Amino acid sequence: MKKLLPTSTAGSLPKPAWLAQPETLWSPWKLEGEELNEGKQDALRVVLHDQQSSGIDIVSDGEQTRQHFVTTFIENLSGVDFEKRETVRIRDRYDASVPTVVGEVSRQRPVFVEDAKFLRAQTDRPIKWALPGPMTMIDTLYDDHYKSREKLAWEFAKILNQEAKELEASGVDIIQFDEPAFNVFFDEVSDWGIAALEKAAEGLKCETAVHICYGYGIKANNDWKKTLGAEWRQYEDVFPKLQNSTIDMISLECQHSRVPMDLIELLRGKKVMVGAIDVATDTIETPEEVADILRKALQFVDADKLYPCTNCGMAPLSRSVARDKLTALSAGAAIVRCELSG
Q1: Is the pLDDT of residue 224 over 70?
Q2: What does the angle CA 66 – CA 70 – CA 74 come to, to the nearest 5 degrees?
Q3: Rounded to whole angstroms, how far apart are CA atoms 106 and 128?
């Protein structure tokens, strides 16, 4: 994108109250059948309007057509039994009841392509579309078939690549893979995680991104953050490997985090989506607070490669809080853009 410091969101945005319970993850749909399909499209229009009116340059679907950023994609694949559930530890952080892989996983049809085509028809702005990354997908399942995290990740990478290529063909400008698991399973990231991610992005001509954060602002994630000490240096293990990867953009968490900003230097040459909005609080950042994060980041990333963003998805927030935060993001980016242009 030619605009300096183009703004975007990391992923999810709050759903309208008539579609699903506000401020709730995994919220069930309030509509059924054709009403649900229409409701999802209406929600896509709503979040697009909210982003555009807030000054967001690279827009997204806000994950309005999915209940969860990982499982909604998996629900559309064969080989996974959602009735047969087991309790597993998610990212070594909390226990959850998850579906079971019972056979070979495969994609019988596109999952998000029609939604992407609909969104593309509504706007001329660049579109970013998020998909779950292979490692994060396997971390939300019980595998009773492959019995190997690596083998299952490679199968998911192939499936994700099929979906990503069709999303690209539908007019999506940036394909983003969400990999919060990269902040936890460092040996696997090194052994096969980066390679599986590259497989998911193989052959794409549009820009590719990977989002690595410290999670939604839910209790389990907040409690985990309290154990990480005065400095959160998890990125130090992953960034050098990503800097050498084929992925174009890296999305990270900076606002109100304890991530040492100089770790961004490890990504020199890549485009960096700098999280300048905290999604774990209802407090609205001031434009100057956003600008301060961006100024610090500019010590370690060239201005033409800096993309102001949110720390993570905003689904657990209210719509009014999310809108105000997006407005602050745009205003903060405008301050620094002005400074850079003299």
Answers
A1: yes
A2: 90
A3: 24
**DSSP reduced 3-state for 332:** helix
| Matching residue, tokens 């999670």 | 215
Helix 149-169 with 113-122: angle, nearest 10 deg = 40
Reply yes or no on whether the pLDDT at 13 is more than 80.
Answer: yes
Q: What are the sequence ranges of the domains in the chain? A: 33-341
Give the model confidence (pLDDT) of 107-128 as tens digits.
999 999 999 999 999 999 999 9
Question: Rounded to whole angstroms, how far apart are CA atoms 75 and 264?
Answer: 35
Name the architecture of domain 33-341.
Alpha-Beta Barrel (3.20)
The fraction of the chain above a pLDDT of 70, given in percent, is 100
Q: Strands across the sheet with 174-178, in order?
A: 128-132, 174-178, 207-211, 249-253, 271-275, 306-309
Cα separation, 269 vs 198, whole angstroms: 17
The number of beta carbons lying within 10 Å of the beta carbon of residue 18 is 12
